[in-house]
Amino acid sequence: MNNQRSPHNFRSKSFLIDQVQSIVDFYYPECIDNTLGGYINQFRDDGTIFDDRTKHLVGTCRFVYVFATAATMLNNPEYLEAARHGVKFLGEHHKQSTGGYAWLLDGIDVDDSTNHCYGHAFVLLAYATALKAGIAEAAEPLSETFDLMERYFWRKNDELYVDEITPDFLSVDPYRGQNANMHTCEAMIAAFEATGEQRYIQRATTLAKRVCVDLAGQSDGMVWEHFDEDWSIDWEYNLDDPKNLFRPYGYLVGHWTEWTKLLLILEEHNPQDWMLPQAKRLFDAAVEQGWDHENGGFNYSISPSLGAGRASALGRGDAASGGVIDTDRYYWVLSETIAAAGLLAKRTGKQVYSDWYERTWEWSLANLVDQQYGGWYRILDADNNRYDDLKSPASKTDYHPVAACWELFKRL
After folding, report:
1. 400 among known catalytic residues
2. For 38-51, how does the pLDDT look when each residue is reduced to its tens digit (9 = 90+)?
3. What's the pTM value of the predicted model, to 2 decimals?
4. Active site residue: 56, 85, 255, 293, which one?
5. Three-state secondary structure along the chain?
6. Catalytic annotation present for 255
7. CATH code for the structural domain at 15-409
């Protein structure tokens, strides 16, 4: 690690506040759609808008999260109203007559009403975060969303949620994935923090154990992404589409550190003896296998033969070589690793995690945080260069760094 002392005190509340303020200043107030309602999601690096029509469910929910969190963290009532603005749009336009929430809108017209568990997890997170911030009208839809997910997505025998259901809720896609369950776990923790209701923290604990212990038992303790209908690992899913936006192929080291963060938060609410060891195991593997020691930053995905002891070669490209599949650097991977390292440092007192906390902040500030306009660049190549000037397409909103700063702010 670089021995030169950083000018930043990454553990100070003022530093974390400044980071969140910079993000909010980039989006607000231009992101507030006063014509159609909800938010405008699509921004270029300089803050200009390149699409004022597309409204993604995840983007709407993440903006609610960002503004509700900023209202609390920065003590600004304007941001609370910005969050309330999004809560209203969720209920009036994303929510359909079936009770489900449309995945994609063109203005206020439904473009895709497929029911995604991933999307509904963010609905639950948005309502929970809004309620925590003081938006009382989020309480009823929070409970309703849990009940809806219980009715349609939850599988009692599997103790996991299915991923995708048709708009009429009649046909379930056979794909099973950990990502939707991970974000549902995150949302359940937030719902518990908002309400104190035990059903939420118990469900979060069940999901965490099923993914990080039971399912990970099929892949040498590491979290794999894609599964068949019976929750056996599908090693070939999206092998030909390794950069799929929502379901990329390979082990995602960012999800290992994201689970680290969630396990440590979960341990505070409902401690169990497996949580800290698995959190450390996932984090240690992520930084060992994912960090680029030459250029810095994390490679996005790694092959099964590297991430776990799978002996059989897959027979094509980098995936069979036991190496890195995707060398791109995504902003959210650094955000989650910053949070995980900070929480691990506090939980264990070990210097190695403090070092990673410092290293990941320093690299992010130098490469991902836009020092001119604010916000984080979405994606860089292996040489840490941007592909384009699209800072926030569709659903980004910089929710990940805001969430990292907030969880650290509460604890450091």
Report:
1. yes
2. 999 999 999 999 99
3. 0.95
4. 255
5. CCCCCCCCCCCCHHHHHHHHHHHHHHHCCCCECCCCCCECCEEECCCCEEECCEEEHHHHHHHHHHHHHHHHHCCCHHHHHHHHHHHHHHHHHHECCCCCECCEEECCEEEECCEEHHHHHHHHHHHHHHHHHCCHHHHHHHHHHHHHHHHHCEECCCCEECCEECCCCCCECCCEEHHHHHHHHHHHHHHHHHHCCHHHHHHHHHHHHHHHHHHHHHHCCCCCCEECCCCCECCCCCCCCCCCCCCCCCEEHHHHHHHHHHHHHHHHHCCCCCHHHHHHHHHHHHHHHHECCCCCCECCEECHHHHCCCCCCCCCCHHHCCCEEECCEEHHHHHHHHHHHHHHHHHHCCHHHHHHHHHHHHHHHHHCECCCCCCECCEECCCCCECCCEEECCCCCCHHHHHHHHHHHCCC
6. yes
7. 1.50.10.10
